[in-house]
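Dear colleagues,

As part of the handover before I leave the project, I'm documenting each prediction I ran so the next person doesn't have to rerun anything. This entry is a single chain, and its sequence is reproduced below.
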Amino acid sequence: MKVEALQYGDRKVFTVSAFNRGVADWLSRLPSLWIEGEVTELKRQDRWQTVFFTLKDPSDGACVRVTMARGRFDALDLGLENGRRVHVFGRPELFEAKGDFSLRALSIEHFGLGDHLAALERLKAKLAAEGLFAREQKRPLPRFPRLVGVVTGNDAAAKRDILTAIQTRFPPARVLVAETYVQGPYAAGAIVDAIGELCKADELDVIVVARGGGSFEDLLPFSDERLVRTVASCRVPIVSAVGHEQDTPLCDLAADVRASTPSVAARLVVPDADELVERLDRARAGLARGARRTLERDRDRLERTRERLGRAPALALERRGARLEHAAARLRALAPHATLERGYAIVRAGESIIRSGQQVEPGARIEVELAEGGLGARVEDVR
């Protein structure tokens, strides 16, 4: 709507509504921009659609009122609080009804976040080039760890979640907890020392490094180069459970396994006792079935062997009798008397058997043996 002034003689006069509308229209033409300041008077309510706070310049106290849609504000999950220095990206606007000037925020970042992100990207690229994040470097977790090490803060939540999950899942598990700083400038070095102390335990088989959620700055120690190198070179596999699912500190990339929460990490490092019992029951039942099948198979084999042994003497005698009968038949077929039975005769001259007519002379006496009896004769001629 066009802003028009009222004409009073030679004087142009704007109504308050027209003035505010004109200023608002002019402000809407300004570009979006970043503004730096400290958060004060932060007001957020679940029943409100808008979050309100004031951005103050710490150098001279200058302030600007800031509004932001609650859904957009919550999605950033910055853990914003009064006194925190931030960069706000937004557009200036004027609420025409009341003439209230404010900055409509589109995004918020913690002070220095851009520099931190750039530095982390450079470190990430450097460590990746050295192979610290390579998949082939990852080690499998032990199936039945003798001792589980846990590095966590002294707050009860993360430690309680891990210990409760481990004890619930596998009651016989042995756990060694190292409480240390997990936030602040001393955290990275303290975590490195804690990992080193845990590694002195001879039976240590796996370590869980855990911390609950937090802001970007809260999780920065877990991207410290010293800690990342310690995780990658640790003598036992490490499970990293730092922050929430969307958080990815560099120690997550160097760890052998990443878990979304401390409770999930606990479930990864110990077996499920109930599942083991169930598998043992199945294995026991399978062994019993196998033993029964083996016994039945051996019993059947012994029964068949017994039956064969019972029949063996008769079969042996039968086979031997058949062989003897066969030999006797062959002997009978080859015996001279068997030949005589077929009409042949044996002719002897004295003690010699006559096989040729040249062996005798006419008039010689010969003996002829027949199948039954025999006779004497004299040779009339020789052919």
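The mean pLDDT is 87. The CA atoms of residues 20 and 96 lie 5 Å apart.

All the best with the project,
I.
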